[in-house]
Every structure is written in C-alpha cells, then in structure tokens.
Amino acid sequence: MRYVSTRGQAPVLTFEEAMLTGLARDGGLYVPETVPHCPAREIAALAGLPYEEAALRVMRPFLGSAFGDDALEAIIERAYAGFDHPARAPLVQLGSNHFLLELFHGPTLAFKDFAMQLIGQLFQASLERSGKRITIVGATSGDTGSAAIEAFRGLDNVDVFILFPEGRVSDVQRRQMTTPTEDNVHALAVKGDFDDCQARVKDMFNDFAFRDRVGLSAVNSINWARVLAQVVYYFTSAVSLGAPHRAVRFAVPTGNFGDIFAGYIARRMGLPIEKLVIATNQNDILHRALTGGAYETHGVTPTISPSMDIQVSSNFERALFEAYGRDGAAVAQQMDALKSQGGFTISQGALETLRETYGSGRASEDETRATIRALFAATGEVLCPHSAVGVKVAQDQPASAAPMITLATAHPAKFPDAVEAATGIRPALPSRMADLFDRPERVSAVENDLAALKALIEERRRA
Ligand SMILES: Cc1ncc(COP(=O)(O)O)c(C=O)c1O
Ligand SMILES: N[C@@H](CCOP(=O)(O)O)C(=O)O
Question: Which value does ipTM take for this structure?
Fold first, then answer.
C-alpha cells in the first residue's frame, strides 16, 4: 500500500513513512493510492467481534508490511486497554431509527483517543526500530491536544508541543493539557484562534530546514494514520445495525473534517453508507460550501462547542481531491486561493460528486442547548454540545429507512458549564480525574508568531 499527496508533487510513501511524515512536502495531505475493497462477506463477519479484532481486520490492508500481524494485534490490544467501556464504542438507541455512537470512553473522554492511543503505540514501535527521536507539534481546539499528550507523555524519544487558542477551550480541556508533569510535554496558549494555531503548525512543516532539524511529526488529522484509526467504528456500528445487508446514515459533528473523512473511506471500502451528514455549529463553512458551492472563511466565532470552532477545515482537502477525480493540480490551485483570497468556488461537477456522499446541516447555539435539554428530558442521555450539534442536524435530515447513527464525540463532563446551563445537571468527571482542578498547571502564553514559536520549540526540545 502506497500513499500519495493531494497536491500531487510530493514523494509517494509507505504507510509508516506517511505516518511519521504527517504533512506532505508539497503542503498536501497523504491518502492511499487505492482504497482497498472489503467484500460484503468480510463486513458481515465483523458482527459480534471484539472491537480490537474488528480494528485489526479493517486496518490491516492499509498498513502494508510495516507491522507484522502479531505486532499489530498487540499494538491494538494495548491501544484500547485503557478504555472504560468493554465495547469501546457502544451504540445507544435514541429513537426508533436514531442511534448514538458513544466515542468518549477513552482516557481523555473524546473520540480522539481512538486514533491517538493507537498512533502512540505505532509511533513507539517505529521509533524503537529506527532509534530516531521526533518533535510532535500539534494544534488543538481542545481535544486533540489532551489526547496527544496522553498518548505520548513521558516518552524519551518524543517531545510534544501543543498549541491551543488561549481562552477558547473549556477549563477541563485546558487542565487536561496543562496539568501533566512529564518534561516532554509543553502546552502553549496562543493568542489567536484554532485556525491560527493550525496555520502555524503547517508553516513549521513548510520550513524544511526547521522540519528536518527537529524531526517534526504531526498528530493532527492531517496525519493519515489518525484518519485510518477512525474508520473502524463506522464498520463496527454499521454492522451492529445490520450492514452489509442494510444501509445506514451517519451524522458527524465536524470541524477539521477528519472524522467524517474516515466515514468516507469506510464507504469507499464497501460499507453501505447512504449519507454522511456534516453537522456544524455556527462556524458553518462546510455547510455553506456544500449548499452554495463557495468555500469562504468568515472568521472563527466562539461557541459552546469550542472544539468545532474551525473555519479552515484541513481534511476537506482530501474530500476535494476525490471530488476532483484526484487532480492534485486543481486541489493545489484551490488551496492557494484559500490562502491568498480566503476562499474558492467548488466546480459544479465536484460539488455534485460531494453531494452524492455528504449531506450537511448547521445548529445554532440555542438549538444546541435545546437539543441537550430535550434529549435529557426524553431519554436521560446527557450530550456534550458537539454531540448535540450532531443530534440536531440528524433530526433535521429528510426521512429515510436507513438508521441514522450520530457520533457522540466527547463526554459531557468536558463541558460542564454548557451542559449544566441546558439541563441543570453538572456532569461529573470520572473518578480518575476527580482531582483535575487541584493539580498545578504548567502553560506558556505565546504570541501568534511563527519565529517565536519555532525558537521556543528549538530551545525546549531535548536534543
Ligand atoms: C468533541 C469534538 N467533536 C467534533 C470534532 C470535529 O471533528 P473533526 O475535526 O474530525 O471534524 C472535534 C474536533 O475535531 C471534537 O473535539
Ligand atoms: N477539534 C480538534 C481540532 C483538531 O482536529 P484534528 O482532528 O485535526 O486533530 C481538537 O479538539 O483539537
């Protein structure tokens, strides 16, 4: 299995190389050269398997020869051993044809743990073999950062720097990043929004001298390995509702488009997904793009679902690459326009292709709060605001016989103020985090300035 860049000008890599590289050297994102097909009988055979076994079967064809079967099996076992729920990704029924896929039972209480716990193990195995050391620099709107820190804390051959927008993550999210004591972990509060943080990370990747000197690696979903790990739960949930004999739909709270693109890969592999519905908050660039054809940034607005306060949605580039028939030059042109003019228009052909796969919707702040309140009153299920955006948009979709599965992407206890305001209930953190607010914080406030950030990283990383 080989990986190519969405901009067509970077070296073709193996899985392991693409994982360690992160962003392609032409600024694009790696995608598999071909998407392996999973025949219906193999999809059906996933029914009833432990999550780990299903993960091995779904991901195996993408990894090539980098990790042997036994090694991969052990890696997957270790990755999910710290999850609080035996099913890892349990399904809860919300209504006659609507289900919630709970993805928040991992160590940091968000869906990011599914991928981050796995790639933490994959990186370690790979670095032990090569004897190399790396510097991970990630951008977060709240959840990727804590998941990355949890996966890489304390490792001798990895330094981790996480850029988060100052004052724009919840207190729980911030403390998850600022209270770990390991000296390879650095939480950086940037004066800016998530798009600024993500842009500075990409700038660092585009400075090849810096990139090579510090051994830069990415753990945002620009890294293909992140997306791959998220393909698995589309299979496990769809199969438990009757796939491959019955089609399903997914509503996916969306920001950087990594999670929903994992659903696209599952669909391309042969999983019968009728629609992948993009659910956005007020930062609705993706909904506007799908409905009107113009992908235009309007600036990031803070919301009660802060992890989705994103306008430059990195993985949409992967979707465009597919919609433009894998024309890297066309994608590069649009990405240049995004950088220089703040937007671009999607061609009619590409838009129609996107609409065959994706639906979309947007939830306002009031609708998000009302959905948390109504679902709690009707079922007792307490949603985080991101999951509530997903549920609201799912409820707004046209009727279909195919069951709708909404991804519940974070635990409500990460956003206690918003949840309490909607339900009167203040959700409690699991007991292993009960003292989170008593732990001392360690954080550096930094300007949104590339040179200053690079200097800080050079100074603090352990050579
Ligand atoms: C809780 C939560 N929900 C949804 C999203 C959106 O996921 P994606 O960026 O993969 O679209 C994020 C962040 O990415 C998140 O942290
Ligand atoms: N919502 C994310 C933003 C980064 O997304 P990623 O999936 O590309 O890492 C976060 O919580 O940090």
Answer: 0.99
